[in-house]
Amino acid sequence: MFFKVGFVIGLFCTSNFIFTQGEINVAKKYASKIDSIKIREYVSILASDSLEGRDTSTEGQKKAAAYIQKKFREFGLDSLSTGYLQQFLLYKKNKSAILYFNKLKLNFPEDFGFYGFYDSDFIAENDVDNSLIKVVAWDKFKKDKFYLNNQVNSLIITINSYLEVDFNLIKSRKIKNVFFICKFYNESYFTKYTDGELTFSTKADSKNPQRLFFINRKKLKEKKVLNSIQVKINPLDEVLSENLIAYVEGSDSLLKKEFLVISAHYDHLGIKNGEIYNGADDNGSGTSALIELARIFQEAKMNNENPKRSILFICFTGEEHGLFGSEYYSQHPLISLKNTVADFNIDMIGRKDSEKEKSQFSVYIIGSDKINYQFHKKHEEIAKINSNLRLDYKYNDFNDKEKLYYRSDHYNFAKNGIPSIFYFGGFHADYHQPTDDIEKLNFTKIKAISELVFFTAWGFAL
Ligand SMILES: [Zn+2]
Residue 392, class by beta-carbon neighbours within 10 Å (0-12 exposed, 13-18 middle, 19+ buried)? Predict the structure, then answer.
């Protein structure tokens, strides 16, 4: 695969053994403080109806953020920003878009549609240079190398249908605005991109932004040269959302510069068709485990018994829409990624798998061996010494049909070469349903997995 070798091989190789007996005793003392009653209390707030399913950028998500913020403050955790917040822009798709073609007003989606390689390119910019517009037929355009080498502001291309367009070819040409005049226009190709979904801007990374418009030829009254185009298009509303980031500084003056991340997404699916998706398991469970671990690491610090390295606690937003919070964080880290030595990500750890877990709880471990094998071995060793959980690697395969390796926030660390583990409790019938409620959670299992994450983070931070 394309992963870089971890930056911190030294961390995983130098210590052959993880804990001395004294260290085990201290770690155990704090692990025993993990309190399932407190975890239940956090979940009962996060998964309550008043938080309305915590959909990214909604009031409910902001309430959840305020609650996590309150907890971090109450425990006395340190912040790297104002109020533990990392706020960033997201874009919500809407249907308001107007295009003027030779002063003829065209409406979306019946008269025209649009598409882009980078969604953010659609943001209202009336930057069509009308003096330079040319019209060319698709067959001619395909062979014309001019557009490969020269930056062109706008071009009109006549086509039969959307399906005829070779998008890779278009992408390789340096044209900012492409207006396809379609003989056969089908609005259903375009409406599916504007259903209120959230999208994350990659504008900063796009070197060759292009905007593509598809215009229904039947709506154009004048068939002669089209020389006046005005775009009034703002199909994306800007919204704000926020990650919450707190840390417990390590006890060693040098090693405290190295950070281990414990992460969990706190957003969920919101309200659909009047039903609240409370997301008690997904991911009230993981967020609550994180809050509890933050409390305990901070307590150890207050007693000057915390490990040498620092622990960073991140609650991500935007996960359910496409890992947006962790993607943003990985592009704008508050601690340099070079000093970020591992990520332990907790997502859905609250449900008992009745088939497999008759006598012993298990946890799915995903990604531990992908970046650095020593990291994986060390994790196994820590688990063996400190946990009764059965580690299940069923989903730990790039090619597994569920593709879980790519489906939670650890992935945005892993793709940057940072050794990562995704702790997952298993699927169930209430997954992404309005019935994912607190009554169905197993707090003994949540506690057991929280303890494993605790010992792991502690062991790696020593
Ligand atoms: Zn989910």
Answer: middle
